Amino acid sequence: MTLYSIAMSWNDTDLEESPIPRWSQIADRLRTDIESGSFKPGDVLPGEAEINKRFGVSRSTSRAALDYLETEGLIKRRSGVGSIVIEPRVERPLNQISSFSEDMRRRGLTPGYRTRSVKVVSASAAIALELQLQPGDDVVEIDRTMLADGMPLATSMTYLRPQLFEKSGIPTIEELDSGSLYERLQRDDIVFAGGDERIEAAMADTMTARILNVRQPAVVLICHRTSWMPDRQPVEYVVLHYLAERYSFHVKLIKA
Fold it and tell me: Which top-rank group of organisms is this from (predicted)?
């Protein structure tokens, strides 16, 4: 139970005399108002000066409360603007292979796609290594932006073995914009049995920042995934750039 009732606003009552630090009490109140929808994505939270005046706290106390909300991924602090409430993060388990559509629907979001190109290209040495091909072999390249409720969440560059499309043919841009690639493959009885994934953080380059509609500097999570069929043959290699402020990965640990 929190110290703060959801039916009240962040500034309705004075802070309590409690072992809980004052900055934590302030953060708790603001977090509750964010979670209840009193502050919506895009809204600007009360600034340090307003918080200081309301509770009679120091600037360092109000700053600590807002800094903590930023580390929780609830707000983004911008110089000259203030503390802006951002969309909640999408969390994906690391021990499951699932489509982007499945991830979004599971969280009550509407998935969408914006396809820039679909073409057959010659595999580079790096792609050939991932798919166990020879450099120069044909691969199908799909370049897309992944959307959640119409907002860009990630970029996706996918490379697939051409034999995956022997039954239904290579999908068109219109087909890829209208639905999940994994669901299309499943209709042809193609299901990935497993894969390897590695994730790293980096600063978004100019093109990625433009596609994701964020200002630089911006942090992205880069996911490299190779998926294989039941016979362990790798058939898909994809590089995704997720907007770090909107996406997180979850892994369950067990005691060795």
Answer: Bacteria
Assess contact for 158 and 181: CB atoms under 8 A: yes
Peptide bond into 217 cis (omega under 30): yes
- Interatomic CA distance for residues 211 and 91, integer angstroms: 21
Angle between helices 59-71 and 48-55 (to 10 degrees): 120
For the domain covering 90-250, report its CATH number: 3.40.1410.10
Indicate the CATH number of 22-85 among 1.10.10.10, 2.60.40.740, 1.10.3720.10, 3.40.430.10: 1.10.10.10
pLDDT in tens, the chain (256 residues): 344 444 568 888 888 888 889 999 999 999 999 888 889 888 999 999 999 999 999 999 999 999 888 877 788 888 888 898 887 766 665 556 667 777 777 777 788 999 999 999 999 999 999 999 999 999 999 999 999 888 898 999 999 999 999 999 999 999 999 988 988 998 999 988 888 889 888 999 999 999 998 888 888 989 999 999 998 999 999 999 988 877 666 666 556 5
